[in-house]
Design a protein that fits this description.
Rossmann fold, 11-stranded mixed β-sheet, 6-stranded parallel β-sheet, binds NADPH dihydro-nicotinamide-adenine-dinucleotide phosphate, binds L-homoserine
Length: about 450
């Protein structure tokens, strides 16, 4: 074994990810030493309960409930506890003790990123967080380093595995949301409380991290528009399929240029229609993918496991090797670049294409009324499809085709790009117009 310098590594957390990091660090110690140029000595692992069962076989003597001596004695601190506190305080303590830090904590970075990066900047330390967005997929380094010479225009990401699993099964099996969610919980994709995933909070945290890097602008979590998938039902899935789309929960991060040439950005998470021939439509199961459009590079797609203990440990260990190399090389760390500081547009000012599905009475003049309301709202129609379904006769359950006044028409209206504010006001007017029986769905169309 080469006589490398020893770097002391402290691990905070030995759960799904941490236990795999510790296990791989021990199993591949010699190989990692050759790559890092230093022997990575795991000096201890902080946990809440040292006697709890672990996913990996870890020496009991490494486990402790007292993180502080580990933190101050380490060259590299890996934070895999999750949550805001005490993770935030421990990371700041590690930085101020001269350690480089590695974390997968998207919740912490999306809410306290600037504070942590600023603290690292002050002392010349580096913060590594490849696993904080899209798990095992290398996306942080490509945005921060590989594309540093380019201008990212747009990111469309499937960054939450649980929701992709649910939507994919609803699409492929015609299953209902509640049934698939129950399966996802049984299989361990979704938590007992699935709110963070199904309401889009997890994806919004990742969107804030990706947009901050891509646009060199600090994007606070509050600036990310967020909608979840709990309103998506089988009828919406069927309608999307019929129209050649699939519904995906997307994180969309976009650079926009106004008429005066001024740039701004928009960061949003919502379920959207994606054409079936778009690369993101073929992301199945709990996988993640990030589609990046850059001015010079063109279209790039990053695909793989967005979660999972051992998969995420791969990204964490890549960061540990980078941290070791930097520690050996010395010099100041490279801070996050927020120099562009672009304004972040509210969702009302964003333009997108939409698909509006309405149920209307099949009466003369109804289509003209609907078209008139859209026109008044400055929403331009691109496509209209009408299907007529007969209302069952109350009492006997059999369909009738006459008289025409008993029939309901389903209108599926595709719009050209429209301002969100105009669109939502127009949908309100449609709903109140007297000719619309039901607004079935309003979905944005992305990636066309
Ligand atoms: P777990 O909940 O499985 O593990 C958390 C670990 O931290 C446990 O070992 C726990 O100890 C320990 N811990 C929690 N609080 C404290 C505390 N106050 N003091 C000491 N130890 C503490 O989390 P995961 O491994 O799933 O996630 C870790 C991080 O990685 C999170 O930030 C998460 O968002 C991120 N991440 C996770 C992914 C995944 O697939 N799981 C994917 C991508 C990112 P004990 O075991 O004794 O309870
Ligand atoms: N809950 C997340 C997901 C995993 O379903 O993708 C970690 O980010």
């Amino acid at each position: 074994m080469t006589d490398y310098r020893r770097l002391r590594v402290a691990l905070l957390g030995a759960g799904a990810v941490g236990s795999q990091v510790a296990s791989l660090l021990r199993k591949h110690g010699d190989e990692l030493a050759d790559r890092a140029g230093a022997h990575l000595e795991l000096i201890g692992i902080a946990v809440r309960n040292p006697d709890a069962p672990r996913d990996a076989d870890l020496p009991r003597e490494l486990l402790t409930t007292d993180p502080e001596p580990l933190i101050v004695g380490a060259d590299i601190v890996i934070e895999l506890m999750g949550g805001i506190e005490p993770a935030r305080s421990y990371l700041l303590q590690a930085i101020n003790s001269g350690a480089d830090v590695v974390t997968a904590n998207k919740a912490l970075l999306a809410t306290h990123g600037p504070e942590i990066f600023e603290a690292a900047d002050q002392v010349g330390a580096q913060v590594y967080y490849e696993a904080a967005a899209a798990g095992a997929i290398p996306i942080i380094r490509p945005l921060r380093d590989s594309l540093a010479g380019d201008r990212v225009q747009r990111i469309m990401g499937i960054v939450n595995g649980t929701t992709n699993y649910i939507l994919d099964r609803m699409d492929s099996e015609g299953a209902e949301f509640a049934d698939v969610l129950a399966d996802a919980q049984r299989l361990g994709y979704a938590e007992a409380d699935p709110t963070a995933d199904v309401e889009g909070y997890d994806a919004a945290q990742k969107a804030a991290i990706l947009a901050s890097l891509a646009f060199h602008t600090s994007v606070p979590l509050e600036a990310v528009h967020r909608e979840g998938i709990t309103g998506i039902d089988k009828a919406m899935m069927d309608a999307a399929r019929h129209a050649g789309y699939v519904i995906k929960l997307l994180a969309v991060c976009e650079r926009l240029t106004g008429a005066d040439g001024a740039e701004s950005i928009s960061v949003r998470v919502y379920p959207a229609l994606v054409r079936r021939d778009h690369p993101l439509a073929s992301v199945h199961g709990a996988n993640n993918a990030v589609f990046v459009q850059a001015e010079a590079a063109g279209n790039l797609m990053f695909y793989g496991a967005g979660a999972g203990g051992v998969q995420t440990a791969s990204a964490v260990l890549g960061d540990v090797v980078s941290a070791a190399r930097r520690h050996l090389a010395g010099g100041v760390g490279v801070g996050e670049s927020n120099r562009a500081n672009l304004p972040i547009l509210p969702i009302a000012n964003v333009t997108t294409r939409y698909q509006i599905t309405l149920e209307v009475d099949d009466q003369p003049g109804v289509l003209a009324t609907v078209a008139g309301i859209l026109s008044e709202g400055d929403v331009s129609i691109a496509t209209v499809e009408q299907t007529v379904r007969s209302e069952p006769v109350p009492g006997n359950g059999s369909p009738v085709t006459e008289p025409a006044s008993d029939t309901v028409a389903r209108l599926v209206i595709g719009t050209h790009k429209a301002l969100e504010q105009n669109l939502s006001e127009t949908v309100d007017r449609l709903a109140a117009s007297g000719v619309v029986e039901r607004v079935v769905s309003v979905l944005r169309v992305e990636g066309d």
